[in-house]
Amino acid sequence: MLALCLSGARVAQAELGDMAGARRLLAYAAAAPLDLQVVSSSEHDGITIQDLTFASPKGGRVPAYLVAPVGGGLHPGVVFGHWGFGNRTEFLAEAELLAEAGAVSILIDYPWERPAPWRREAPIIAEPEKSFQAYVQAIVDLRRAFDVLLARPDVEARKIAYVGHSYGAQWGAVLAAVDRRMKTAVLMAGVPDAATLYLDAQEPGLVEWRKTFPPGQMEKFVEVFSRLDAIRFVPEANPIPLLFQFARRERIMSEADMTRYFDAAKGPKSILWYDTGHELLDPRAQADRAAWLQAHLGLKHLTRLLQKRMRQTTP
Q1: What total of structural domains would you count in the chain?
Q2: SS3 helix, strand, coil % of the chain, rounded to 5?
Q3: What pTM value is reported for the model?
Q4: Torsion of CA 223, 224, 225, 227, to 10 degrees
Q5: Pairing label, strands 47-55, 37-44
Q6: Each residue of 212-246: pLDDT tens digit?
């Protein structure tokens, strides 16, 4: 099985080629209209939350939240990528905090989390090429989210960050390699490659799930999906500073896998560990992200605002 997987990965790498090939795969018509449509808007505590959609270069529309401070001036921007089967609400509270500190954030839903008629099916092991195209659309739509931020006159182009969790961290490694518009990226609980998740993970549920597929089917899926392996892209992120956040109680990959991923990054980088699981539900993880973004985006009051929020209680 391992030999088959490695052989398939080599074939996939040859198909994709160098980073120029990756850029062609993830290219889109950047000059096309964004066609922003605001569904609703609300305001509280000096921030505005817009529920909106914009046109996807791959077809259909992308639901998103855009969270911004009320008031003038230039602001840093942050693009968020949620975990694989989460949605744009994952980082909404964090985006609200960033807006209080003076940043504009955009949070999108991946294609398989969208309503009809824009919805794509969730990744299907039996249809690897179809799933692969959904992954490509997710990454292209995240690139388009950068366009949405940069089209705003109140966003400072030199101060854009990316924050992604799980699949979102994988897409972050790809984005940092092929799209140089971010000043920094935070990669949370990112898996280095498809084989680690789909072939090697010893989490009991995943082990039993793998047994439900015919021999060779999972390996074929990995062969196709490996064209977007984060560990292939992350060395090309240099010189973008990367913060890696990992869980010591991770159930879908080993500490050696996570260290291997971190070691593959060649530029400025930092790694932080938390005594929790894949969800990274440790308040220190958010505090460390806040400190990182504060330092790299110049958000002077972000950590203080987070400390204040953590002291507050809801009546």
Answers
A1: 1
A2: 45, 20, 35
A3: 0.93
A4: 90
A5: antiparallel
A6: 999 999 999 999 999 999 999 999 999 999 999 99
